[in-house]
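Hello K.,

You asked for the raw outputs rather than the summary table, so here they are, unedited. I folded two proteins back to back in the same session to keep the settings identical. This is the first:
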Amino acid sequence: MANTALYEAMEQGDFEALSALWLPGDVSCVHPGWPLLRGNGEVLRSYALIMANTDYIQFFLTDVEVSVEGDTALVTCTENILSGGPAEEEGELGPLVGQLVVATNVFRRTGDGWRIWSHHGSPVLTETSEDEDEDGNGDGGRSGI
C-alpha cells in the first residue's frame, strides 16, 4: 500500500520514490514541531532537508487504521521512530533517538494509484511517574474524575 511505501522511501533515503508518492499541486504537510507546509515544492523540500540531516531512520508503525471513501483514503497510525543524526567520527553511527508520533495520512486515488494529499504528524508526549498523582491521571486531580 502507498502508506507503507511512504515510510519505506524515508527509511531508504529514496527521495525520488518519496516524491512520486505525493500528488502534484496543492498538498499539505505538518512535521512534528514544524509549521504548516503547503504545495508540492515546500513539502518536498522539507523531506529533502530531513533526509539530508538524518543518517538513519526506521519506522515501526502501530495502531494502523485505514478508512476508504470513494477515491479518498484516511490512514492513522503511530510512528515509533528510531533515528540517528550525523556521527562525530567518520564510519560511526551518530546517537540514536526514539520518538513517538501520531500521524494522519490522507491519500487520493489517481490513474497512477494512490497518492499522498496530506500528512500530519504530532509528537506523543509521554507521562512520567512524577507527572501522575494519586488518582493516576497525571492532571494533579484537576479533572474531577
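The second followed immediately with the same parameters:
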Amino acid sequence: MAGIIVVFDFDKTIIDVDSDNWVVDSLGFTEEFERLLPTMPWNDLMDAMMGKIHAAGRTLDDVAAALRAVPIDPRVPAAIRAACALGCDLRVLSDANAFFIDTVLDHHGLRGCFTEVNTNPSRVDADGRLRIGPYHAAPHGCGVGTCPPNMCKGQVLDRILREAAAGGGRKRVIYLGDGRGDYCPSLRLAREDFVMPRRGFPVWDLICEDPAR
C-alpha cells in the first residue's frame, strides 16, 4: 500500500456538505451571500463574506464552531484511518480553504493521516478577520474548462505525481471527488489509476458524458 496515493476532495467528499455554504448559512449570512454571488468569483466572494461576518461581530471561534458541527458520515473517518494504517499516502486536494479544512480534520482527529492539504490559503489578519486567498495567484491557463480561476486541480495533481516519481517511481493514484473541478485531475490519471466519482454529482456526469476521454 505504500505505493498508493489517495487524493481526496473535501467538500461533499470527506464531509457531506459544502463547507463554504455551511458556514455562511450557520452564521446567518445566506441572504447577503446570495446577493453577492452573481457579482464576483466564488473564492473572492468567500473572502468578502469573511469580512462581513467579522464586521458583524462574529469571531473566528464562531466560524470554527460552525465547522466543528459539519455533518460527516462516520464511515469516512474510519476509511481514512484504515487507509493511513495500511501505509497509503493520503492527500487533500480541495477548493475550500486551509482554515476550514484544518478545523474539520483536527476536530475529527484526522489531520495526521494526511501528508499534505492542497487548498486555497487562509490567514488571520491583525484584526482577527479570516482572509482567504487563491491557490493560483495568476490565471492558471488550464484549457479543460471546468476549473475555477483560482485553482486547477489537474496542475496540482501533476505536481504531486512529479514529486512522487522523483522520490522513487510513479505511484498508483486513487482519486475521490464530486465537483466540476475534479474532472480536470481525473483526466491526468493513467490506466493503472482509479477515479472514484460521487454518483449523481457533477464530476460523475462529466465522466459519463465522455467516458473514453
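The chain has a mean pLDDT of 95.

Happy to rerun anything if the numbers look odd on your end.

Regards,
P.
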